[in-house]
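Residues determine shape. We examine one folded chain.
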Amino acid sequence: MISKLSSAAAVFEAIFSTAGNASMVEQKGSAYDFVFTSIDGAPLPLEGFRGRAILIVNTASRCGFNFQYAGLQETWQTYQDKGLVVIGVPSNDFGYQEPKGEIELKRFCRGTYAVTFPLAGKTKIRGPNAHEFYKWATEALGEKSKPRWNFHKYLVNSDGKLVAWFAPTVTPRSRRLAGAIEDALPKAG
Protein backbone atom coordinates (compact mmCIF):
# COMPACT_ATOMS: atom_id res chain seq x y z
CA MET A 1 0.00 0.00 0.00
CA ILE A 2 2.79 2.44 0.85
CA SER A 3 4.51 1.86 -2.49
CA LYS A 4 1.21 2.57 -4.29
CA LEU A 5 0.87 5.84 -2.36
CA SER A 6 4.49 6.72 -3.12
CA SER A 7 3.95 5.99 -6.79
CA ALA A 8 0.78 8.07 -6.87
CA ALA A 9 2.55 10.94 -5.11
CA ALA A 10 5.41 10.78 -7.63
CA VAL A 11 2.94 10.94 -10.53
CA PHE A 12 1.12 13.92 -8.99
CA GLU A 13 4.41 15.69 -8.33
CA ALA A 14 5.57 15.15 -11.90
CA ILE A 15 2.26 16.33 -13.37
CA PHE A 16 1.54 19.25 -11.08
CA SER A 17 5.00 20.48 -10.16
CA THR A 18 5.31 21.03 -6.43
CA ALA A 19 5.61 24.67 -5.57
CA GLY A 20 6.53 28.10 -6.67
CA ASN A 21 7.10 31.44 -5.11
CA ALA A 22 6.18 34.94 -6.05
CA SER A 23 9.10 36.91 -4.70
CA MET A 24 9.79 38.64 -8.02
CA VAL A 25 6.18 39.13 -9.12
CA GLU A 26 4.51 42.56 -9.17
CA GLN A 27 0.95 41.97 -7.97
CA LYS A 28 -2.09 44.15 -8.58
CA GLY A 29 -4.17 44.55 -5.45
CA SER A 30 -3.97 42.21 -2.51
CA ALA A 31 -5.70 39.19 -1.05
CA TYR A 32 -7.58 41.61 1.20
CA ASP A 33 -9.63 42.65 -1.83
CA PHE A 34 -11.53 39.34 -1.82
CA VAL A 35 -14.47 37.94 0.09
CA PHE A 36 -15.44 34.29 0.34
CA THR A 37 -18.70 33.04 1.78
CA SER A 38 -18.24 31.06 4.98
CA ILE A 39 -19.57 27.54 5.37
CA ASP A 40 -22.32 29.09 7.53
CA GLY A 41 -23.35 31.47 4.72
CA ALA A 42 -21.89 34.67 6.18
CA PRO A 43 -19.35 36.85 4.36
CA LEU A 44 -15.74 35.79 4.97
CA PRO A 45 -13.71 38.86 3.92
CA LEU A 46 -9.96 38.33 3.76
CA GLU A 47 -9.68 41.97 4.87
CA GLY A 48 -10.64 40.67 8.31
CA PHE A 49 -7.26 38.92 8.45
CA ARG A 50 -5.19 42.00 7.59
CA GLY A 51 -1.74 41.77 9.15
CA ARG A 52 -1.82 37.97 9.34
CA ALA A 53 -0.47 35.33 6.97
CA ILE A 54 -3.19 33.28 5.25
CA LEU A 55 -2.97 29.72 3.93
CA ILE A 56 -5.84 29.12 1.50
CA VAL A 57 -6.42 25.48 0.57
CA ASN A 58 -9.04 24.06 -1.78
CA THR A 59 -10.39 20.91 -0.15
CA ALA A 60 -12.59 17.91 -0.92
CA SER A 61 -13.86 15.37 1.59
CA ARG A 62 -13.73 12.39 -0.78
CA CYS A 63 -10.26 13.11 -2.13
CA GLY A 64 -7.40 10.74 -1.39
CA PHE A 65 -5.55 13.76 0.02
CA ASN A 66 -8.27 14.43 2.62
CA PHE A 67 -5.93 13.19 5.36
CA GLN A 68 -4.40 16.67 4.97
CA TYR A 69 -7.30 18.12 6.97
CA ALA A 70 -5.50 16.77 10.08
CA GLY A 71 -2.24 18.44 9.03
CA LEU A 72 -4.03 21.70 8.25
CA GLN A 73 -5.60 21.64 11.71
CA GLU A 74 -2.20 20.97 13.28
CA THR A 75 -0.68 23.82 11.26
CA TRP A 76 -3.50 26.12 12.35
CA GLN A 77 -2.94 25.20 16.00
CA THR A 78 0.83 25.63 15.73
CA TYR A 79 0.83 29.04 14.03
CA GLN A 80 -2.52 30.61 14.92
CA ASP A 81 -1.11 32.58 17.86
CA LYS A 82 1.85 33.65 15.71
CA GLY A 83 -0.36 35.24 13.05
CA LEU A 84 -1.50 32.53 10.61
CA VAL A 85 -5.03 31.88 9.41
CA VAL A 86 -5.81 28.65 7.57
CA ILE A 87 -8.90 28.76 5.35
CA GLY A 88 -10.34 25.61 3.81
CA VAL A 89 -12.19 26.21 0.55
CA PRO A 90 -14.28 23.14 -0.36
CA SER A 91 -14.69 22.61 -4.08
CA ASN A 92 -16.29 19.98 -6.26
CA ASP A 93 -14.19 21.01 -9.28
CA PHE A 94 -11.81 18.05 -9.37
CA GLY A 95 -13.25 14.59 -9.85
CA TYR A 96 -16.53 15.61 -8.20
CA GLN A 97 -14.93 14.72 -4.88
CA GLU A 98 -16.92 17.22 -2.80
CA PRO A 99 -20.57 16.21 -3.19
CA LYS A 100 -21.54 17.17 0.37
CA GLY A 101 -23.62 20.23 1.18
CA GLU A 102 -22.33 22.78 3.69
CA ILE A 103 -24.03 21.31 6.77
CA GLU A 104 -22.83 17.77 6.06
CA LEU A 105 -19.37 19.04 5.10
CA LYS A 106 -19.02 21.06 8.30
CA ARG A 107 -20.09 18.02 10.32
CA PHE A 108 -17.55 15.84 8.46
CA CYS A 109 -14.63 18.28 8.95
CA ARG A 110 -15.36 18.91 12.61
CA GLY A 111 -16.28 15.31 13.46
CA THR A 112 -13.63 13.43 11.50
CA TYR A 113 -10.68 15.83 11.71
CA ALA A 114 -11.63 18.19 14.59
CA VAL A 115 -11.28 21.15 12.21
CA THR A 116 -11.59 24.53 13.91
CA PHE A 117 -9.99 26.72 11.23
CA PRO A 118 -12.36 28.79 9.05
CA LEU A 119 -14.11 27.00 6.20
CA ALA A 120 -15.63 28.66 3.17
CA GLY A 121 -18.78 27.35 1.57
CA LYS A 122 -18.39 25.26 -1.58
CA THR A 123 -16.62 27.41 -4.14
CA LYS A 124 -15.80 27.23 -7.85
CA ILE A 125 -12.04 27.55 -8.18
CA ARG A 126 -11.53 26.96 -11.88
CA GLY A 127 -13.17 27.86 -15.14
CA PRO A 128 -15.03 31.02 -16.14
CA ASN A 129 -17.09 30.99 -12.93
CA ALA A 130 -14.08 30.63 -10.63
CA HIS A 131 -14.02 32.73 -7.48
CA GLU A 132 -12.27 36.04 -8.10
CA PHE A 133 -9.49 35.18 -5.62
CA TYR A 134 -8.47 32.19 -7.76
CA LYS A 135 -8.55 34.26 -10.95
CA TRP A 136 -6.37 36.88 -9.24
CA ALA A 137 -3.94 34.27 -7.89
CA THR A 138 -3.49 32.75 -11.34
CA GLU A 139 -2.92 36.19 -12.86
CA ALA A 140 -0.48 37.12 -10.11
CA LEU A 141 1.55 33.90 -10.09
CA GLY A 142 1.02 32.58 -13.61
CA GLU A 143 -0.71 29.59 -15.17
CA LYS A 144 1.66 27.14 -13.55
CA SER A 145 0.30 28.14 -10.12
CA LYS A 146 -3.31 27.32 -11.03
CA PRO A 147 -4.88 24.55 -8.92
CA ARG A 148 -4.95 21.27 -10.82
CA TRP A 149 -6.34 19.12 -8.01
CA ASN A 150 -7.71 19.22 -4.48
CA PHE A 151 -5.53 20.43 -1.59
CA HIS A 152 -3.64 22.99 -3.67
CA LYS A 153 -2.31 25.70 -1.35
CA TYR A 154 -1.76 29.44 -1.73
CA LEU A 155 0.21 31.34 0.90
CA VAL A 156 -0.43 35.03 1.48
CA ASN A 157 1.97 37.05 3.63
CA SER A 158 0.99 39.51 6.36
CA ASP A 159 0.94 42.33 3.76
CA GLY A 160 -1.76 40.58 1.71
CA LYS A 161 0.57 39.52 -1.11
CA LEU A 162 0.77 36.02 -2.53
CA VAL A 163 4.19 34.63 -1.75
CA ALA A 164 3.94 30.97 -2.76
CA TRP A 165 1.80 28.14 -3.99
CA PHE A 166 2.07 24.45 -3.24
CA ALA A 167 0.74 21.42 -5.12
CA PRO A 168 -1.39 18.79 -3.35
CA THR A 169 1.66 16.58 -2.83
CA VAL A 170 3.18 19.15 -0.47
CA THR A 171 1.61 18.23 2.85
CA PRO A 172 0.68 20.83 5.48
CA ARG A 173 3.42 19.72 7.89
CA SER A 174 6.19 19.51 5.28
CA ARG A 175 9.38 21.44 6.01
CA ARG A 176 8.98 23.37 2.77
CA LEU A 177 5.52 24.66 3.67
CA ALA A 178 6.38 25.24 7.34
CA GLY A 179 9.42 27.32 6.32
CA ALA A 180 7.35 29.39 3.89
CA ILE A 181 4.70 29.97 6.57
CA GLU A 182 7.33 31.12 9.05
CA ASP A 183 8.70 33.57 6.48
CA ALA A 184 5.18 34.90 5.75
CA LEU A 185 4.17 35.48 9.37
CA PRO A 186 3.98 39.04 10.69
CA LYS A 187 7.30 40.30 11.96
CA ALA A 188 7.54 41.47 15.55
CA GLY A 189 8.59 45.01 15.92
In short: The beta strands are 19-21, 35-37, 43-45, 53-59, 84-90, 153-156, 162-166. The mean pLDDT is 90. Residues 34 and 46 are 6 Å apart (CA to CA). The first strand starts at residue 19 and ends at 21.
